[in-house]
Amino acid sequence: MRQIDTIAGLRAAIATARARGERIGFVPTMGFLHEGHLRLVDEAKRAAGCVVMSLFVNPTQFGPNEDFSRYPRDVSGDAAKAEGRGVDLLFLPPVSEMYPTPPSLHVMADDLPTRWEGEVRPGHFSGVLTVVAKLFNIVAPDVAVFGRKDFQQATLIRRMVRELNFPIEMVVAPTVRENDGLALSSRNTYLDAGARANGLALVKSLRTVTAAFAKGERLGSRLGNIGRETLATYPDVRVDYFAVVDPTAMKPVDTASADSVAIVAARVGPTRLIDNMILGEAE
Ligand code: AMP
Predict the structure, then answer these.
(1) 170 vs 176: CA distance, rounded Å
(2) Whose CA is nearest to atom 7 of ligand 1?
(3) Sheet-wide strand order for 50-55
(4) What's the mean pLDDT in 68-90?
(5) What is the pLDDT of residues 163-222, one digit of tens each?
(6) Which ligand 1 atom is the nearest neighbour of the CA of 33?
(7) Catalytic (active site) residue 37
Protein backbone atom coordinates (compact mmCIF):
# COMPACT_ATOMS: atom_id res chain seq x y z
CA MET A 1 0.00 0.00 0.00
CA ARG A 2 1.28 3.46 -0.86
CA GLN A 3 0.47 6.46 1.30
CA ILE A 4 0.11 9.65 -0.72
CA ASP A 5 -0.68 13.16 0.50
CA THR A 6 -0.72 15.23 -2.69
CA ILE A 7 -3.30 15.38 -5.47
CA ALA A 8 -0.59 15.24 -8.15
CA GLY A 9 1.01 12.20 -6.52
CA LEU A 10 -2.31 10.38 -6.30
CA ARG A 11 -3.20 11.16 -9.90
CA ALA A 12 0.17 9.81 -11.06
CA ALA A 13 -0.24 6.57 -9.07
CA ILE A 14 -3.78 6.10 -10.41
CA ALA A 15 -2.56 6.72 -13.98
CA THR A 16 0.00 3.93 -13.47
CA ALA A 17 -2.71 1.53 -12.27
CA ARG A 18 -4.90 2.46 -15.23
CA ALA A 19 -1.99 1.87 -17.60
CA ARG A 20 -1.82 -1.67 -16.18
CA GLY A 21 -5.46 -2.02 -17.21
CA GLU A 22 -6.88 -1.91 -13.67
CA ARG A 23 -10.27 -0.54 -12.76
CA ILE A 24 -10.24 1.98 -9.92
CA GLY A 25 -12.42 1.52 -6.83
CA PHE A 26 -12.79 4.34 -4.31
CA VAL A 27 -13.76 4.43 -0.62
CA PRO A 28 -13.92 7.95 0.86
CA THR A 29 -13.73 8.15 4.69
CA MET A 30 -12.90 10.49 7.52
CA GLY A 31 -10.67 7.82 9.10
CA PHE A 32 -10.65 6.27 12.59
CA LEU A 33 -11.44 3.12 10.68
CA HIS A 34 -13.72 0.35 11.92
CA GLU A 35 -15.15 -2.80 10.38
CA GLY A 36 -17.91 -0.78 8.63
CA HIS A 37 -15.29 1.12 6.62
CA LEU A 38 -13.33 -2.07 5.92
CA ARG A 39 -16.39 -3.83 4.46
CA LEU A 40 -16.57 -0.99 1.96
CA VAL A 41 -13.00 -1.90 0.97
CA ASP A 42 -14.10 -5.52 0.47
CA GLU A 43 -16.86 -4.29 -1.88
CA ALA A 44 -14.41 -2.07 -3.78
CA LYS A 45 -11.98 -4.98 -4.17
CA ARG A 46 -14.72 -7.11 -5.67
CA ALA A 47 -15.28 -4.45 -8.32
CA ALA A 48 -11.81 -3.07 -9.07
CA GLY A 49 -8.15 -4.09 -9.29
CA CYS A 50 -6.87 -0.92 -7.62
CA VAL A 51 -8.58 0.34 -4.45
CA VAL A 52 -8.08 3.94 -3.33
CA MET A 53 -9.15 4.99 0.17
CA SER A 54 -9.14 8.60 1.28
CA LEU A 55 -8.77 9.65 4.93
CA PHE A 56 -9.82 13.26 5.18
CA VAL A 57 -11.66 14.93 8.04
CA ASN A 58 -13.38 17.53 5.89
CA PRO A 59 -13.73 20.80 7.82
CA THR A 60 -16.46 22.22 5.56
CA GLN A 61 -19.03 19.59 6.56
CA PHE A 62 -18.82 20.42 10.27
CA GLY A 63 -20.88 23.22 11.80
CA PRO A 64 -19.19 25.81 14.06
CA ASN A 65 -20.35 24.02 17.23
CA GLU A 66 -19.65 20.50 16.01
CA ASP A 67 -16.78 18.13 16.73
CA PHE A 68 -14.31 18.93 13.90
CA SER A 69 -11.36 19.66 16.20
CA ARG A 70 -11.95 16.68 18.46
CA TYR A 71 -13.04 14.22 15.75
CA PRO A 72 -11.05 11.02 16.54
CA ARG A 73 -7.89 10.52 14.49
CA ASP A 74 -5.43 7.60 14.33
CA VAL A 75 -3.50 7.76 11.08
CA SER A 76 -0.98 4.99 11.81
CA GLY A 77 -3.69 2.62 13.09
CA ASP A 78 -5.82 3.43 10.04
CA ALA A 79 -2.91 2.80 7.67
CA ALA A 80 -2.31 -0.64 9.22
CA LYS A 81 -6.01 -1.56 8.96
CA ALA A 82 -6.31 -0.30 5.39
CA GLU A 83 -3.21 -2.17 4.29
CA GLY A 84 -4.37 -5.35 6.06
CA ARG A 85 -7.62 -5.21 4.13
CA GLY A 86 -5.97 -4.69 0.74
CA VAL A 87 -6.17 -0.95 0.06
CA ASP A 88 -3.63 -0.12 -2.67
CA LEU A 89 -3.45 3.67 -2.42
CA LEU A 90 -4.18 5.58 0.81
CA PHE A 91 -4.80 9.27 0.18
CA LEU A 92 -4.24 11.51 3.24
CA PRO A 93 -4.29 15.09 2.03
CA PRO A 94 -3.76 17.92 4.51
CA VAL A 95 -6.53 20.54 4.55
CA SER A 96 -4.23 22.92 2.64
CA GLU A 97 -4.01 20.42 -0.24
CA MET A 98 -7.80 20.09 -0.55
CA TYR A 99 -8.54 23.78 0.11
CA PRO A 100 -5.49 25.89 -0.85
CA THR A 101 -7.86 28.85 -0.83
CA PRO A 102 -11.18 29.07 1.07
CA PRO A 103 -13.84 27.40 -1.10
CA SER A 104 -15.95 29.93 -2.97
CA LEU A 105 -18.45 27.61 -4.63
CA HIS A 106 -20.39 24.59 -3.46
CA VAL A 107 -22.45 21.69 -4.72
CA MET A 108 -25.92 21.99 -3.23
CA ALA A 109 -29.14 20.06 -3.61
CA ASP A 110 -32.46 21.89 -3.64
CA ASP A 111 -34.65 20.15 -1.16
CA LEU A 112 -33.17 17.22 0.71
CA PRO A 113 -30.59 19.27 2.63
CA THR A 114 -33.40 21.08 4.40
CA ARG A 115 -34.70 17.84 5.90
CA TRP A 116 -33.47 15.45 8.61
CA GLU A 117 -29.68 15.69 8.87
CA GLY A 118 -29.73 18.80 6.69
CA GLU A 119 -32.17 20.57 8.98
CA VAL A 120 -30.27 19.71 12.16
CA ARG A 121 -26.85 20.36 10.55
CA PRO A 122 -27.13 23.44 8.26
CA GLY A 123 -24.44 23.44 5.58
CA HIS A 124 -23.46 19.84 6.28
CA PHE A 125 -24.57 18.35 2.98
CA SER A 126 -23.13 21.08 0.78
CA GLY A 127 -19.82 20.39 2.55
CA VAL A 128 -20.21 16.66 1.91
CA LEU A 129 -21.31 16.96 -1.72
CA THR A 130 -18.58 19.47 -2.54
CA VAL A 131 -15.77 17.40 -1.04
CA VAL A 132 -17.07 14.18 -2.64
CA ALA A 133 -17.27 15.94 -6.03
CA LYS A 134 -13.66 17.14 -5.56
CA LEU A 135 -12.54 13.63 -4.60
CA PHE A 136 -14.40 12.14 -7.57
CA ASN A 137 -12.57 14.57 -9.87
CA ILE A 138 -9.21 13.75 -8.27
CA VAL A 139 -9.61 9.96 -8.21
CA ALA A 140 -11.88 9.50 -11.25
CA PRO A 141 -12.92 6.04 -10.02
CA ASP A 142 -14.96 3.48 -11.95
CA VAL A 143 -16.80 2.53 -8.78
CA ALA A 144 -17.26 4.33 -5.46
CA VAL A 145 -18.50 2.61 -2.31
CA PHE A 146 -20.53 4.23 0.47
CA GLY A 147 -22.27 2.94 3.59
CA ARG A 148 -26.01 2.71 4.09
CA LYS A 149 -25.40 3.85 7.67
CA ASP A 150 -25.47 7.41 6.26
CA PHE A 151 -28.63 6.85 4.25
CA GLN A 152 -29.46 10.45 3.38
CA GLN A 153 -25.85 11.12 2.38
CA ALA A 154 -25.82 8.09 0.06
CA THR A 155 -29.13 9.22 -1.46
CA LEU A 156 -27.76 12.71 -2.14
CA ILE A 157 -24.47 11.43 -3.59
CA ARG A 158 -26.38 9.06 -5.86
CA ARG A 159 -28.39 12.03 -7.07
CA MET A 160 -25.24 14.10 -7.61
CA VAL A 161 -23.63 11.30 -9.65
CA ARG A 162 -26.71 11.11 -11.86
CA GLU A 163 -27.43 14.81 -12.28
CA LEU A 164 -23.81 15.96 -12.70
CA ASN A 165 -22.98 13.02 -15.00
CA PHE A 166 -20.10 11.53 -13.04
CA PRO A 167 -19.24 8.31 -14.94
CA ILE A 168 -19.10 6.38 -11.67
CA GLU A 169 -20.94 3.27 -10.49
CA MET A 170 -22.23 3.78 -6.95
CA VAL A 171 -22.31 0.88 -4.51
CA VAL A 172 -24.06 1.31 -1.16
CA ALA A 173 -23.12 -1.39 1.34
CA PRO A 174 -25.21 -2.54 4.33
CA THR A 175 -24.64 -1.17 7.83
CA VAL A 176 -22.19 -3.11 9.98
CA ARG A 177 -23.26 -3.45 13.64
CA GLU A 178 -21.83 -4.58 16.96
CA ASN A 179 -23.20 -7.90 18.30
CA ASP A 180 -25.80 -6.00 20.33
CA GLY A 181 -26.95 -4.03 17.29
CA LEU A 182 -25.22 -0.67 17.79
CA ALA A 183 -24.22 0.62 14.35
CA LEU A 184 -20.44 0.99 14.12
CA SER A 185 -19.37 4.63 14.02
CA SER A 186 -16.12 6.47 14.61
CA ARG A 187 -18.09 8.61 17.07
CA ASN A 188 -18.90 5.56 19.26
CA THR A 189 -15.48 6.18 20.80
CA TYR A 190 -17.07 9.18 22.59
CA LEU A 191 -19.51 6.89 24.46
CA ASP A 192 -18.78 5.72 28.01
CA ALA A 193 -20.51 2.55 29.28
CA GLY A 194 -23.71 4.35 30.33
CA ALA A 195 -23.99 6.34 27.13
CA ARG A 196 -23.28 3.25 25.08
CA ALA A 197 -26.22 1.43 26.73
CA ASN A 198 -28.44 4.41 25.89
CA GLY A 199 -27.08 4.42 22.35
CA LEU A 200 -28.88 1.12 21.83
CA ALA A 201 -32.15 3.10 21.88
CA LEU A 202 -31.69 3.84 18.17
CA VAL A 203 -31.41 0.24 16.95
CA LYS A 204 -34.13 -0.80 19.42
CA SER A 205 -36.55 1.74 17.95
CA LEU A 206 -35.71 0.63 14.40
CA ARG A 207 -36.16 -3.04 15.24
CA THR A 208 -39.49 -2.39 16.95
CA VAL A 209 -40.71 -0.62 13.83
CA THR A 210 -39.45 -3.22 11.34
CA ALA A 211 -41.11 -5.89 13.52
CA ALA A 212 -44.41 -3.97 13.45
CA PHE A 213 -44.09 -3.68 9.66
CA ALA A 214 -43.42 -7.43 9.40
CA LYS A 215 -46.60 -8.06 11.44
CA GLY A 216 -48.61 -6.04 8.93
CA GLU A 217 -48.63 -2.41 10.18
CA ARG A 218 -48.48 -0.19 7.11
CA LEU A 219 -49.56 3.26 8.36
CA GLY A 220 -46.51 5.53 8.23
CA SER A 221 -47.70 7.75 11.07
CA ARG A 222 -48.35 4.76 13.34
CA LEU A 223 -44.95 3.25 12.57
CA GLY A 224 -43.38 6.62 13.40
CA ASN A 225 -45.22 6.71 16.72
CA ILE A 226 -44.07 3.20 17.56
CA GLY A 227 -40.46 4.27 16.97
CA ARG A 228 -40.81 7.44 19.05
CA GLU A 229 -42.53 5.54 21.89
CA THR A 230 -39.60 3.12 22.05
CA LEU A 231 -37.14 6.03 22.15
CA ALA A 232 -39.17 7.68 24.93
CA THR A 233 -38.40 4.72 27.22
CA TYR A 234 -34.80 6.01 27.28
CA PRO A 235 -35.06 9.26 29.30
CA ASP A 236 -31.42 10.22 28.68
CA VAL A 237 -31.77 10.08 24.91
CA ARG A 238 -32.76 13.34 23.15
CA VAL A 239 -34.41 12.57 19.83
CA ASP A 240 -33.72 14.83 16.83
CA TYR A 241 -36.07 12.91 14.55
CA PHE A 242 -37.61 9.51 13.89
CA ALA A 243 -39.48 9.02 10.62
CA VAL A 244 -40.50 6.45 8.05
CA VAL A 245 -39.63 7.82 4.61
CA ASP A 246 -39.39 6.77 0.99
CA PRO A 247 -35.85 5.95 -0.13
CA THR A 248 -35.38 8.59 -2.85
CA ALA A 249 -37.23 11.79 -1.95
CA MET A 250 -36.94 10.86 1.74
CA LYS A 251 -40.39 12.28 2.47
CA PRO A 252 -42.52 10.65 5.19
CA VAL A 253 -44.76 7.96 3.73
CA ASP A 254 -48.50 7.65 4.35
CA THR A 255 -48.44 3.96 3.53
CA ALA A 256 -45.21 2.11 4.19
CA SER A 257 -43.82 -0.47 1.77
CA ALA A 258 -40.87 -2.87 1.89
CA ASP A 259 -38.45 -0.26 0.50
CA SER A 260 -39.49 2.47 2.98
CA VAL A 261 -36.75 3.42 5.42
CA ALA A 262 -37.01 4.14 9.13
CA ILE A 263 -34.48 6.86 9.98
CA VAL A 264 -33.47 8.09 13.41
CA ALA A 265 -31.09 10.61 14.94
CA ALA A 266 -30.63 11.22 18.65
CA ARG A 267 -28.20 12.63 21.17
CA VAL A 268 -26.78 10.65 24.04
CA GLY A 269 -25.16 13.29 26.21
CA PRO A 270 -23.09 15.39 23.82
CA THR A 271 -22.78 12.61 21.24
CA ARG A 272 -25.05 12.59 18.23
CA LEU A 273 -25.86 9.20 16.67
CA ILE A 274 -27.79 8.28 13.51
CA ASP A 275 -29.09 4.97 12.21
CA ASN A 276 -31.68 3.58 9.79
CA MET A 277 -33.28 0.36 8.61
CA ILE A 278 -35.09 -0.61 5.41
CA LEU A 279 -38.47 -1.92 6.58
CA GLY A 280 -38.70 -4.95 4.34
CA GLU A 281 -35.11 -6.04 4.67
CA ALA A 282 -34.10 -8.57 7.29
CA GLU A 283 -30.91 -7.37 9.00
P1 AMP B 1 -17.15 8.34 7.74
O2 AMP B 1 -15.71 8.04 7.92
O3 AMP B 1 -17.94 8.24 9.00
O4 AMP B 1 -17.40 9.60 6.95
O5 AMP B 1 -17.72 7.16 6.83
C6 AMP B 1 -17.10 6.81 5.61
C7 AMP B 1 -17.98 5.81 4.91
O8 AMP B 1 -18.16 4.67 5.74
C9 AMP B 1 -19.38 6.35 4.60
O10 AMP B 1 -19.76 5.91 3.30
C11 AMP B 1 -20.21 5.73 5.68
O12 AMP B 1 -21.56 5.58 5.32
C13 AMP B 1 -19.53 4.39 5.85
N14 AMP B 1 -19.85 3.80 7.15
C15 AMP B 1 -19.70 4.38 8.38
N16 AMP B 1 -20.14 3.55 9.35
C17 AMP B 1 -20.58 2.42 8.73
C18 AMP B 1 -21.17 1.19 9.19
N19 AMP B 1 -21.40 0.96 10.48
N20 AMP B 1 -21.50 0.27 8.27
C21 AMP B 1 -21.28 0.50 6.93
N22 AMP B 1 -20.74 1.62 6.45
C23 AMP B 1 -20.39 2.58 7.33
Answers:
(1) 18
(2) 29
(3) 2-4, 89-91, 50-55, 24-29, 143-147, 169-173
(4) 97
(5) 999 999 999 999 999 999 999 999 999 999 999 999 999 999 999 999 999 999 999 999
(6) 2
(7) yes
pTM of the model: 0.97
**Range of 19's domain?**
2-173
Q: Which amino acid is present at 87?
A: V
Residues with CB under 6 A from ligand 1: 29-30, 36-37, 40, 146-147, 149-150, 173, 175-176, 183-186
Q: Are residues 64 and 100 in the same domain?
A: yes
Which CA distances in Å does 59 have to 66, 72, 92, 165, 226? Answer: 10, 13, 14, 26, 36
Hey, which of 143, 150, 176, 263 would you mutate to test ligand 1's pocket, going by the most ligand atoms within 8 Å of its Cβ? 150
Shared domain check, 215 and 169: no
Residue 181 region, left (φ>0) first, then alpha (ψ -120 to 50), else beta?
left
Residues 192 and 231 occupy one common structural domain: yes
Residues 191 and 136 in one domain: no
Q: Catalytic one among 34, 37, 106, 124?
A: 37
Residue 230 lies in a domain: yes
Q: 3-class SS at 207? A: helix
Q: How many domains does the structure of the chain reveal? A: 2
Q: State how far the Cα of 240 lies from the Cα of 273, in Å rounded to an integer.
A: 10
